[in-house]
Design a protein that fits this description.
The chain is an alpha/beta fold. It has 2 domains: 100 residues, 2-Layer Sandwich (60s Ribosomal Protein L30, Chain: A), CATH 3.30.1330.30; 156 residues, Alpha/beta knot (3-Layer(aba) Sandwich), CATH 3.40.1280. Helices cover 33% and strands 19% of the residues. The protein is built from 11 helices and 12 strands. The strands form 2 sheets. It has a 7-stranded parallel β-sheet with strand order 8-7-6-11-9-12-10, sandwiched between helices. Helix 6 packs parallel to helix 7 and helix 6 packs parallel to helix 11. The relative contact order is 0.14.
């Protein structure tokens, strides 16, 4: 534990982890390659620490030092204080929550590791919007889904926006990436899961008709906003399911649809 260090120049190399946080392409390359992710806000930082992620450093505005004093005292990582204007110059945006932490990533489990013990799994195909990723993880955690599997082209759940929208739920639900899409869905089925593809297609059964909460092991497949699941993914599913719509609405956005479907999958089942 060391006292916070005041930094007054935006190009200080000690702030390297926090530079250009609004440059999505840069962060997509840098963060996985350098083994880090950014946690924003007091609650998210605390949840990352509680989930066992190691802190690399913390960046605070001065008024947040007292609120984070217990974290500062408990961590060997350096803590830097900056004024809000300097924080904005470094990160590229107004850090209104006043606290950022650079955290060390953990190795991801394999899909087979997760499938051994999970009963209710989310599978995402090509979900590239970080807000949707965060919202889906938050609903998955809140509604009792056990694990998330991602197609190779899904966005990073540990990208700052995803973590923030999920309120740290990305730390609560284990996830893995499937290597070959959609071929690796066969391994999910072989593990005893029924693959349910969520689609607005009228040929799909409603969730009530399908009654996924009565199935022993369920893998719910979700596609990207707008495009939905690809034809290849739909062909790989065991069944198609839909949420019945009213008042001329054709579909919900993927975050809202996920929450409704997760409830249908988990309703009436004991929470782990």
């Amino acid at each position: 534990m060391a006292d916070p260090l005041t930094v007054d120049t935006p190009d200080d190399p000690r702030l390297h982890d926090y530079t250009g946080l609004t440059d999505v392409d840069l962060r997509r390359r840098r963060e996985p390659a350098e083994g880090l992710f950014i946690a924003e806000g007091e609650k998210v930082i605390r949840r990352a620490l509680d989930a066992g992620y190691a802190m690399r450093s913390m960046l605070l505005s001065a008024k947040w030092v007292d609120a984070m004093r217990d974290v500062i005292d408990a961590t060997p990582a350096p803590v830097y204080t900056v004024d809000p204007g300097l924080a904005e110059r470094v990160t590229g945006y107004h850090v209104h929550r006043g606290a950022l932490a650079s955290m060390q990533r953990k190795p991801l489990p394999t899909a087979s590791d997760l499938l051994r013990t999970a009963r209710r799994v989310v599978i995402m195909e090509s979900v590239n919007d970080h807000t949707n990723i965060g919202a889906i993880f938050r609903s998955a955690a809140a509604l009792g889904m056990d694990a998330v599997l991602l197609s190779p082209d899904c966005a990073d759940p540990l990208y700052r926006r995803s973590v923030k929208v999920s309120m740290g739920a990305v730390f609560s639900v284990p996830y893995a990436r499937l290597d070959v899409w959609p071929k690796d869905l066969a391994a999910v089925r072989e593990a005893g899961f029924t693959l349910l593809a969520l689609t607005p297609d009228e040929r799909a059964k409603t969730l009530d008709e399908t009654a996924p909460h009565r199935m022993d092991r369920v893998a719910l497949m979700l596609g990207a906003e707008g495009e939905g699941l690809s034809a290849r993914a739909l062909r790989a599913a065991d069944e198609w399911v839909r949420i019945p719509m009213s008042h001329g609405v054709d579909s919900l956005n993927v975050g809202a649809a996920a929450a409704v479907a997760f409830y249908a999958v988990t309703a009436g089942r004991p929470q782990a």
